[in-house]
Design brief:
This protein is α/β, with parallel strands linked by helices and about 475 residues long. It is built from 17 helices and 18 strands. Strand 12 and strand 13 (about 355-370) form a beta hairpin. Helix 3 (about 70-80) packs across helix 7 (about 125-135), helix 9 (about 165-175) runs parallel beside helix 17 (about 445-460) and helix 14 (about 295-305) runs parallel beside helix 15 (about 325-335).
C-alpha cells in the first residue's frame, strides 16, 4: 500500500501490496478512522473483510506457519528470479523443504490476505520451485549449509524415530555442533513420509533428497532397530548418549470395535499403506470400502484405486463440511474416481467363510457441536442396510504406542508425558517430540515440534 496527499489517503499499489506487512498497524492512515469504511481503498477493504486486526503476528502467512517461514522474503526473491537466495531463506527455518513443498497442509495460504479478494498466493508451489533448484544444485547447497554449522560441542544425542519430528530435531542439533544418531524401526529414514504417505502425493526422490542433505551434514542413521524389552532406553543411554529424544510418532491404528475385524480382507489403514508402499500389496478386486474422513482415508482410497478394484467407496459418518481431509485432496480423490458417501457408519462386518463379504451400515444425522468443534453424529433409528464389499480398510485415526515407557510416563490418551522443559516424566535426559507427544498432527507441526525440542535439548546439555 502507498499513500497520497496530506491526509495520507491509502490507495492500492500492486507493486507494494502485501510486501510491507504494516498496512494495519503502522500505516499513517491508522489515524483517520473514517477511511476504515471506504469501499474503494485497500484500507477500507482490509478493515471490512479480514481479521488482521485480531492477529498478533503480521504478515498473517508467516504468523500461520508453525515453523515461521519467511514467506514474503522468499516469494519476493523467487519473483525477482533469484531461486538460490530464496532457497537459503527457506533453509533458515525449514529442515525438510522438499517434503513441505509437496504435502504441507499450507496454513499460510489459508491465512493469505490476497485470498480474501482473489486467490491466495500459491506459497507451497513456490516453495517447490525453490526446492527443485536445490535438487539441481545439491552439493552447492550442502556446502553452504556446512558453513552455517556451529563448531563441534562434543555432546551426543540419540533420536529414536526418523519421521518429520526426528529428522527436524536431528537437523537442528547437528547444525548446532552436536553429534547426532537417529535410530528407526524402518530400514530407511522418513517414518510416515515413506511408510504412510503414498508416492503419488510425495515423490520418494524428494524424501531421499531432504534426508540426504541432513545426513550429509553429519546425522548418522541406524535402521531396523526398535525400542522393546531387548533394546531399551537404558541401552541407548549406555551408547554414550548425553540426551535421548523419542520421536516415535503415532503408528497404532484405532479400531472401530465392531464384530468381524479379524476376517480376511479387513485391513487397518497404516498396515495397508505400508504394504502398498513396500510393494507387498499389488492387486485388489471387487468393491473396496474405506471407513474414515481424514487425509489418511483419502490416501488409502486413492492407493487402493491404483490396485485395480471395480470401485472404491469412502464412507464417512459426518457431512462434507465436517470432513477433516483437505479440500484439495478430496477433489483429487473425486476426480480420480473415488466415491464418497456421507452420514453413514458401519455397525458390523459381514463375514462368510472367514472372509469379508460386506458390512452392515446405519445412516447418521448431525446434532449439537461436540468437543472436536464439529457436530456430533448419531444413528438414525431404523435406517440400517447392508453394503457389499470385498475389502474393508479402516482409517479412523492413529495413536502413539510406547510400551517401552513406564505407565507413569504415558498419558490417558496414550501419548508421552513430558514436563515443562520437555523431559519425559521419570526419565532423566530423555525428551520427546512430535506425534508421540501431541497425538496425530500435520507434517509441518511435527517439524515444528522437533525443532522446539532440539532447542530444549541444547539448553539441557548447555546446563541452562
Amino acid at each position: 500500500m502507498t499513500v497520497i496527499g496530506r491526509t495520507h489517503r491509502p490507495v492500492v499499489d500492486n507493486q507494494l501490496c502485501q510486501r510491507c506487512s504494516i498496512c494495519v498497524r503502522a500505516c499513517p492512515a491508522e489515524t483517520f478512522k473514517e477511511f476504515r469504511s471506504e469501499k474503494d481503498t485497500a484500507r477500507g477493504y482490509v478493515y471490512t473483510n479480514t481479521d488482521l486486526l485480531t492477529r498478533e503476528i503480521l504478515p498473517p502467512c508467516e504468523g500461520a506457519c508453525p515453523i515461521g517461514q519467511q514467506v514474503r522474503s522468499y516469494i519476493h526473491l523467487l519473483g525477482a528470479g533469484n531461486p538460490r537466495e530464496a532457497l537459503l531463506v527457506i533453509r533458515r527455518d525449514n529442515p525438510l523443504p522438499g517434503v513441505c513443498g509437496y504435502v504441507c497442509h499450507h496454513p499460510c495460504e489459508q491465512a493469505c490476505v490476497r485470498g480474501s479478494w482473489d486467490e491466495p498466493v500459491a506459497i507451497r508451489e513456490l516453495k517447490r520451485r525453490a526446492v527443485h533448484y536445490e535438487m539441481e544444485h545439491e552439493q552447492e547447497v550442502i556446502e553452504l549449509l556446512r558453513q552455517w554449522k556451529h563448531v563441534p560441542r562434543e555432546k551426543k544425542v540419540v533420536i529414536i524415530g526418523a519421521g518429520p519430528a526426528g529428522l527436524a530435531c536431528g537437523f537442528e542439533l547437528v547444525m548446532q555442533g552436536f553429534e547426532v544418531t537417529i535410530r528407526d524401526a524402518l530400514d530407511q529414514p522418513g517414518g510416515m513420509l515413506v511408510g504412510g504417505i503414498p508416492p503419488f502425493r510425495l515423490p520418494r526422490s524428494v524424501v531421499t533428497h531432504d534426508v540426504h542433505v541432513i545426513q550429509s551434514l553429519g546425522v548418522d542413521f541406524v535402521g531396523s532397530t526398535r525400542l522393546d524389552n531387548d533394546f531399551t532406553i537404558v541401552d541407548v543411554r549406555k551408547d554414550d548418549a548425553d540426551a535421548v529424544v523419542l520421536a516415535t510418532g503415532a503408528w497404532k491404528d484405532l479400531s472401530m470395535g465392531v464384530p468381524g475385524e479379524d476376517a480376511k480382507g479387513y485391513f487397518e489403514c497404516l498396515e495397508f499403506l505400508r504394504g502398498v508402499n513396500a510393494g507387498r500389496m499389488t492387486k485388489l478386486t471387487g468393491t473396496v470400502l474405506v471407513i474414515g474422513g481424514g487425509n489418511a482415508a483419502l490416501d488409502t482410497a486413492r492407493s487402493a484405486l491404483r490396485l485395480g478394484p471395480e470401485r472404491v467407496i469412502v464412507m464417512y459418518r459426518r457431512s462434507r463440511e465436517e470432513m477433516p481431509a483437505s479440500p484439495e485432496d478430496l477433489e483429487d480423490a473425486l476426480r480420480e474416481g473415488v466415491m464418497i458417501r456421507f452420514l453413514e457408519a458401519p455397525t458390523r462386518i459381514i463375514v462368510e467363510g472367514g472372509r469379508v463379504r460386506g458390512v452392515e451400515v446405519i445412516e447418521m444425522e448431525l446434532r449439537e457441536i461436540d468437543d472436536t468443534g464439529r457436530r456430533r453424529s448419531v444413528p438414525r433409528e431404523g435406517s440400517g442396510f447392508s453394503e457389499r464389499a470385498d475389502t474393508i480398510i479402516t482409517a479412523i485415526g492413529q495413536r502413539p504406542e510406547v510400551p517401552f515407557l513406564s505407565p507413569s510416563a504415558i498419558t490417558g490418551r496414550g501419548t508421552v508425558r513430558c514436563d515443562e522443559v520437555g523431559l519425559v516424566h521419570g526419565y532423566e535426559g530423555v525428551f520427546a517430540a512430535g506425534d508421540a507427544v501431541s497425538g496425530p498432527s500435520t507434517i509441518v507441526e511435527a517439524i515444528a515440534s522437533g525443532k522446539a525440542v532440539a532447542h530444549r535439548v541444547m539448553n539441557y546439555l548447555n546446563g541452562k
